[in-house]
Amino acid sequence: MKSKIFTLIFLGITTILYAQNSIKGTIEDAETGEGIPYANISLPQQEKGTSTDENGKYTLNNLPKGSYKIVISSIGYKTYSQTVQVNGNTTLNSSLTPSAIEMEEVIVSTPFHKLQSENVMKVEQKSLEELKTQGMPTLAEGITSISGVENVSTGVGIGKPVIRGLSANRVLVYTQGVRLENQQFGGEHGLGVNQAGIESVEVIKGPASLLYGSDALGGVLYLNPEKFAYANETHSDANINYFTNTEGVTADVGFKTSGDKIKFLVRGAYGSHADYEAGNGTYTTNSRFNEYDIKSGFGYQDNKFKTELRYNFNRSNLGIPEEIGEQNRERTPLLPYQEIDNHIISSKNTLFFDKGSLDITVGYIANNRKEFEDEHHHDHEEGEEHHDEHEEEHEEGEEHHDEHEEEHEHYGPSLNMKLHTLSYNVQYHLPELGNFETIFGIQGIHQTNENFGEEILIPDATTVDFGVMATTHYHLKKSDIQFGLRYDSRKIDTKEMGIINTEVYFPELNKNYESFNVSAGYRATIAQNIIGRINLATGFRAPNLAELTSDGTHSGANRFEIGNPNLENEQNFQTDISLEYKNKHVEFFANGFYNTINNYIYLEPTGDFEDEDPVYQYVQNDSYLYGGEFGFHLHPHPLDWLHLESSFATVTGKLRDSGDYLPLIPANKLTNIFRVEFDKGKIRKKYAFITMQNTFNQNNVDSFETETPGYTLFNAGLGATFTAYNQPFELRLSANNIFDKQYISHLSRLKVDGIYNIGRNINIGLSVPF
């Protein structure tokens, strides 16, 4: 496979044709006829773009011959897109219609790279620029502003997404165009991605196994990396944030430059937080965390070939809070804590033919997860007591203490797992046949897990995935149809570890899983400004190593967990219906879903105890979830600067046979936002907002959960872009949980310990482009 890929890339480079194809034109206001300055012009498939000049004129050079979608957007106007035939020098003039609705972006996570209004699948998208205004300290917290998306959290530093009630391995995360693999099966294992260098976030709600294979049963969180600079442009910027609650500081600096063909970017980031303070005024001991992150990218683009190579290194040191103890503002994590290193390398390559194109994406991820446990801390305390006893007898005890301190510092991690994942994704875009767009693809991963610590949580194992898929989009005048078919296989081989008939023993295991999945969707313009969608899709998830092989105490959950090697695939079928109305000043949406999951995997108590911890075993049963998201967005005419937004999200999950509720299902939530925006005058991009977030009682709980009372949080923020001495800078101020509400989220892993969520948190942010 590798030799074939490199051969294709080599042939693509050596057959470059240097014919100068280009697109040029003028972008005008549809009402006034005046040119629109600084409008964005982009070719999504090419990942190439430019901006109009002061008179609304633009030129795109060095384009391959073929048929491509062009997208034109500008703040205050409705985004425009069309397919353009590139052959020689092409002229394309366009008029944009003024609109108070925010401009649309191209959806990258779905295969045909269309605007959301043109997309058959309903995908939610948020730019990081918008998320920054909310003042959330982490990306996992920020995405909860998307209706239907929540966060399973362990304090502030550790969080992972929940999409319509499903999380962990049921939600797949993509970054730099490759699937993120970082031992994400654990509830206390966070997202593991720093928000610096992320351009936008896309969320696919519902099964996306057709596109991504196993683990996309519940949905996909797709993180779009920072774009390269346009041709012959250079940009740099610096960003800094301060958070009052954790006395946290985050900072990042980026630089990017592009010539006609070669592009480069780099960004470094650092963050440090002390323990967070809850609404009752108590610091949550050992919720502190710090993070180092660097992202870089190199790109080359010509008429027939495009490639980009990206690298991301992230080191996180995460305290694991267990109880309320020390009350201080220290930043070094106490025991227990995690030290996690992530190396992500991705290579995206596209060969453009006169008709059709070939995309080849290869990724490599090296994840090293270390956990330092309590027993080391206890040894250290005993050493201190021993030192005190000796100090009463003679002064040499101080030397003994110092030796013991040095010995403690050299203790290895109790848990030390190294996960190496090689992934590939090859997609061939067939030449368009009439109104048909078709893609064939193969995907796969080769993954190894190895243990190097004193404890073994899951055994050494090798996982091999292979999938083949085909999907077609059929475009009509007022409707679109999309359907696809996919086959996947997964092979898991574990090594025998430990000694039989002892506490630590993992037998050899060889498992094979396979699944066929189908997807069909229909989008139609029902009436003027009204779009309806219906999507029917199946999805699957193969059991993970923890579910198959666990045999020990899970300290974070205070229970003893036993795996089940006889688990089968989870297989689901979801019906998703959406309706939306949008004009210049008002937008309504209603999304509903019904999701059946056969062989749903969950933990069930056996009634036994092991060292005073209750014993739970992984079992399977059929289940179902249903719910939806509803809301509106109003810009009353002529007050286009005023925005009123409201959304409501609900989900219910049950086991089919018993009728018992599923665990970790988020409570119903109603969010109301009052927002104003202005973009004129010397001070630009001025905004202010007030948010009221009502989280309702969660009384529909699993047998080992407790009910959670509802709560209301108030948030507010404002910001603007200033210019001083010809230097623009953006200043942001936001406050979350303004009234310092004392509350516990139903999805907090600290709920069982009675530990409250974060209290009032004020964020001050400054961004300076150079």
Structural description of this entry:
- The protein is mainly beta.
- Helices cover 8% and strands 54% of the residues.
- The strands form six sheets. The protein has a 22-stranded antiparallel β-barrel.
- A hairpin with a 2-residue loop joins strand 12 and strand 13 (178-179).
- Helix 5 packs antiparallel against helix 6.
Task: Provide keyphrases for this structure.
mainly beta, 7 helices, 22-stranded antiparallel β-barrel, Immunoglobulin-like, 2 domains, Maltoporin, Chain A, five-stranded mixed beta sheet, 770 residues
Domain count: 2
Strand content: over 45%
* Extended strand count: 41
CATH topology of the largest domain: Maltoporin, Chain A
CATH class assignment of the largest domain: Mainly Beta
Shape: globular
Low-confidence stretches: 1-19, 376-409
Radius of gyration: 27 Å
CATH homology-level superfamily of the largest domain: TonB-dependent receptor, beta-barrel domain
Our count of helices gives 7
**Average pLDDT level:** 88
- Give me the CATH architecture of the largest domain, please: Beta Barrel
Sheet with the most strands, sense and barrel status: 22 strands, antiparallel, barrel
Helix content: under 10%
Compute the separation of the termini in Å.
44 Å
Structural class determined from secondary elements: mainly beta
